[in-house]
Amino acid sequence: MLCRSAAITLLSSALLAQSSQPDPKSPSTVTLKANTQLVIVDVTVTDSHRKPVHNLKASDFVVVEDNVSQNIKAFEEHVYVQEPTTPVQRPPLPPGAFTNFSPVPPKETLNVLLLDTLNTPLKDQAFVRDQIKQYLKKAPAGTRIAIFGLATRLYLLQGFTSNPDILKAAVDRKNSSKSSPLLNDAVGGGNGDVSLSQQYDDAFGNLGSAGVSRAIGELQQFEAEQQSFQLQLRAKYTLDSLNQLARYLSGLQGRKNLIWFSGSFPINILPDGSLDRPFAVMASSEDEFRQTIDLLARSQVAVYPVDARGLTTSPTLNASNSSTSRFARDPTALGKDETKFYEQIADEHSTMLRMAEQTGGHAYINTNDLSQAVSDVTENGSNYYTIAYSPANTKWDGRYRKIQVRMPQNGSTLTYRRGYYADDPQASHRNSASGAVATQPTTPFDPMRAAMMRGAPDPTQIIFQVRAVPASATTEDTLAPGTAAGPDSSKIKPPYRRYNVIFAADPRPIRFTKSAEGNYVGQIQFVTYVYDQDGQLITRTGNEVHTNLPPEGYVATFRTGLHFLQQISVPDKGNYYFRIGVRDVDGDHVGAVEFPVAAIRNLPPESVNPPQSGNAQK
After folding, report:
1. What is the extent of the structural domain holding 115?
2. Which residues contact 430 (CB under 8 A, 6 or more apart)?
3. CA-CA distance, 331 to 410, in Å (whole number)?
4. Could you write out the DSSP letters of every residue in 453-468?
5. Higher pLDDT, 47 or 189
6. Residue 60 within a domain
7. Could you tell me which of 402, 404, 399 has the C-alpha nearest to residue 422?
8. What pLDDT shows up at residue 506?
């Protein structure tokens, strides 16, 4: 159940200042609207030995967009210092206060290792972990790395740290090596075991009857369509996780190098001419791929796909291949299988190359030295130049615009993102996902659903702080107004304790539009979930708020932040966790934070007036 409020309550509080450092400008000088859009391009420049080139100036570069020269507005060189940096300490927070703000040393490049178990065969996962540990033995001091795992969802295995022992332990962690039920072959197609059609062909294929041939053909059709469905699922899970990872990294300043160890990841499934119905297996994830690439680029994330299989050879003539008997009966079968294998490999490598090219990274394929690949990325990806320009073409037509960065010097290799989609930065995104507050949804690519999953990485597109305290010292036998029970009512038993949840969000990432009356209109969701220790949703509450701020109130939010109050009931007995999130509906930005209820259960109660709610909505 969602409660709709007429306006956001603006409370005078210093909560936000401790976490997100709002704009220090005075009310008279705050810029209410910026019409200039900048395109930011990170460029790595290496010599013939793949070593970084330093001390270049803006005048050494020429930037061209769609064959039109662009005027460079800003330029900065970033040089990696091979010395441990002093960790930035988060400012102390008052009791009951939590934030998704992660302090990062200024101008530091962050490195992310993504261990993709969804798309990588089990035997190659062990090879990847060994290669990462080899790299960690020689990693330069102070290299900050975070490690994530990808299965049917995204897992944070280790947050950013420069301690190699902690990173090694994260690589060896049991849940970092889960195998996917959607992948069981050496290539990634999903049918590595002896298929039913192969068994049937081996047993009866030499009979040569028309009935047997039809039966084999139907079995092959069924298996191909099943495989296509599995590939589509893998693509959805993968793109959803990359989308979520981009939102997690968005609020962290500077460039992020995403080193993605994957065995295979096709986004297009082409017709199979060997089937009776070749177009039945076709599928494409191009739209989701475009959205994810755009979000990664805007979050300043350069993707470095690494083929976890190393140098790949065809398994067609492998002694363990059960198709060899079929090759003896059908002279064309060998050639067809070889062609299918190399087409699949080419498609998978094409996806890796496209993702690297469009985010400014580099793909490592057909190499067994994965440790050296990581070393190259952390060195070259930490020495780069940031170029910003305002595009001469100000028409936002959604078309892909090509970027070219040139240098007069010979022998240098430039790596950068090769373009972007000219989507209107002020367009509403409310139709790109569910317009309602998520409950326990299953819709893929819903950013609020991903943000509110128990144990998920905390997205940082909207930095906010929340203060949660008991509302009273007594318990209740009924749920507080606005609190809804989770899907399994048997897990929800009184007595309940009511808690106040006070939000303080940074308004800068939130999209406001100016109304005809001169006020600033926005649509923001405030959501609080309570989970048990098994990840089951216990209670929830959510408010979808429409703002209508006069200019003076809008300016005030940049000093105090956007504030909102919710109340939610939690069973008084048991171990529970708060998952609290904010979403800008029009801008499609999210933020979330998670903490145990036990951390605030014994705080002194504070009495505050609950929000006045309008009509309840399902």
Report:
1. 110-368
2. 523, 585, 586, 588
3. 51
4. STT----BSS-EEEEE
5. 47
6. no
7. 399
8. 94
**How many CB atoms within 10 Å of residue 197?**
21
Query: Tens digit of pLDDT for each residue in 165-201?
Result: 899 998 887 555 555 555 544 444 444 455 555 654 5
Cα angle 123, 127, 128 (rounded to 5 degrees) comes to 115
Q: What is the pLDDT of residue 284?
A: 61
Are 607 and 474 within 8 A, CB to CB?
Answer: no
Place of tokens 């320009």: 389
Residues 6 or more apart whose Cβ sits within 8 Å of residue 243? 291, 292, 295, 445, 447, 450
Q: Which is nearest to 158 in space by CA: 169, 244, 256? A: 169
Query: Tens digit of pLDDT for each residue in 497-534?
Result: 999 999 999 999 999 999 999 999 999 999 999 999 98
Amino acid at 247: R
pLDDT over 50 at 34, yes or no: no
CA distance 361 to 304: 5
pLDDT in tens, 354-398: 889 989 999 998 888 999 999 999 988 889 999 999 999 988 888
- Distance CA(9)–CA(504), nearest Å, equals 10
- Within a domain: residue 45? no
Helices 164-172 and 122-138, interaxial angle, to 10°? 170
- In the chain, the number of structural domains is 2
Whole-number Å distance between alpha carbons of 587 and 380: 33
Residue 44 domain flag: no
Burial pattern 93-131, b for ≥16 Cβ within 10 A else e, equals: eeebbbbbbbebeebbbbbbbbbbbbbbbeebbebbbeb
Q: What SS3 state is found at 131?
A: helix
Report d(CA 331, CA 85) in Å as an integer.
64
Burial of residue 54 (number of CB atoms within 10 Å: 0-12, 13-18, 19+) = exposed
Last residue of a domain, one of 345, 368, 391: 368
**326 and 436 both lie in a single domain:** no
